[in-house]
Amino acid sequence: MTIKQQGTTFTFHSSSKDSINTSKVVTQSGVHFVVMQQEVPTKRTTPKSVRWSVSFLFMYATIYCFHVHLRLRLIQTKDLQSRENNIITDHFRSVIPGSSDVFVFSAFGIHSDSDDFSQSDNVTVSISSVVDMDSPVRDYKCILRRKESPTAIWTKATLQLYPESHGRRFTAAAFSCMVKDVIDLDTVSLVADNKENPAVVLPIMFPSEAKRTFTVCVPPLNSRYSKAYQLVEMVEVGRLLGADHYFFYNYSTEWNVDVVLNHYKSRGLATIIQWSLPLALQINGTDGTSEEARLHYFGQLVMLNDCLNRNRGASKYVIFQDLDELLIPKNHQSWNDMLNSLPANMAAYMFRSSFFHLDWPNTGLDSNVINEIAKPYKAYAFIKQYREERIFGRSVRSKYIVDPLQVQVVGVHNVWKFRKGGKSYHVPPEVALVHHYREMKQNQQIRSQRDNSTLRYIGALYQIQRTWRSLLHIPLGPMN
Ligand SMILES: *[C@@H]1O[C@H](CO)[C@@H](O)[C@H](O)[C@H]1NC(C)=O
Ligand SMILES: *[C@@H]1O[C@H](CO)[C@@H](O)[C@H](O)[C@H]1NC(C)=O
Ligand SMILES: *[C@@H]1O[C@H](CO)[C@@H](O)[C@H](O)[C@H]1NC(C)=O
Ligand SMILES: *[C@@H]1O[C@H](CO)[C@@H](O)[C@H](O)[C@H]1NC(C)=O
């Protein structure tokens, strides 16, 4: 039986008296449901009962149809809305087609420094970019467009090279364009010299309403990243500390990590941004950590600032931390409690770091939860309870929490540029420490000391277990 409705084909499959099973095939042209009538639940069929059951089935089918159709439309609109709220461009694109002079990724509108950020109609549009230091082209302009307005605004683009390029040919950068007294800015294009036709049009993202308290930005997942156990531990411990959301940048992952990422994404805990670097930047292999890579560490500086900008307004605080790190308060239960004990309204809170060696012996703690959860699920924060006595100095391997409204440019271990009036505060290691878990093949004697401060978060282990149980047979990793 086939029922046509608004050009979409619906068919129904009834396998038992009480339930109707549908199998769904989504095609480009629409949604098709297949209905197969297996057994009409009548033994002796008079023409009347056949008519009745057919019309009953038809009615049921129509109602079901309508219901499913509605639900699908709801899902589609929701999807569209979330895409609109969270426009994600997923490619670096070349500004001069066919060349590698400048690649752009995303664009952000930032209201000029004033007492009230949102009241100013003077806007700086900042375009996340990667530029070729060998390129002779240096003059760029922005073409800005407003919503529902045919006239374009041309302005000079100022190039700001980010630090930490480590002498590579390509460097992370931002082009900024200032416009005065303009509302409803919508898109921006960067063009070289006086080229009229832009190759790339980027939507301009503006600070949104505050949605979250703590958002964590994680550097690009790379080299077929497959330590799913590390990801799960980081997210679950982070949630106990107060993390509301994680931003992951996907350069290269293994399938087990994809499953974990999608698990958190579907629960609204993670945003995954494709981080597909152009081939020109990958030459000499995909290993951005090697000396020969053309761009330092998979464009980490572009990524960090992209994440900062995406969260300006959306999150009260943004935390920058690596996959093998945890920011652990020493006297408080949560990041929020800890920040409340520190000087208020700082633009950045800087945290010092210390190594926990993974090759040092496991904790002597012989509890069920350690033996039955931490060990099988490789939750090292609860197994490794010794750290180096040495705590790195300020800005050496430090990580930080920022108020994104007060910060302009961030780096790997420190903030490079504050907005007007922004100040940083160095948090004493007695208040909180970045735990950096790593494998170290060193022979020399290193002074160690016990640090069991993660035990306050041992409740995360139950959540780690729950997560892995719901993921069933996914390998913990590493896989390569
Ligand atoms: C915008 O810029 C103009 C010109 O520089 C300046 O006079 C004005 O005060 C600025 N407005 C705000 C709200 O900052
Ligand atoms: C990460 O990127 C790869 C392609 O590089 C893709 O196959 C994979 O599905 C992505 N993972 C997620 C979780 O989006
Ligand atoms: C990387 O590229 C440079 C020049 O572009 C070349 O000299 C070098 O041998 C290459 N290295 C590898 C590992 O391919
Ligand atoms: C944690 O370490 C301290 C000493 O640093 C010790 O007094 C305390 O008993 C330890 N706690 C646990 C649960 O092992």
Automatic annotation (TrEMBL):
Belongs to the glycosyltransferase 92 family. It comes from the Eukaryota. GO terms for cellular component: cytoplasm; membrane. InterPro entries: Glyco_transf_92. It is found in: Membrane. It is a single-pass membrane protein. Its EC number is 2.4.1.-. GO terms for molecular function: glycosyltransferase activity. Pfam families: Glyco_transf_92. This is Glycosyltransferase family 92 protein. Keywords: Glycosyltransferase, Membrane, Transferase, Transmembrane, Transmembrane helix. The chain crosses the membrane at residues 50-70.
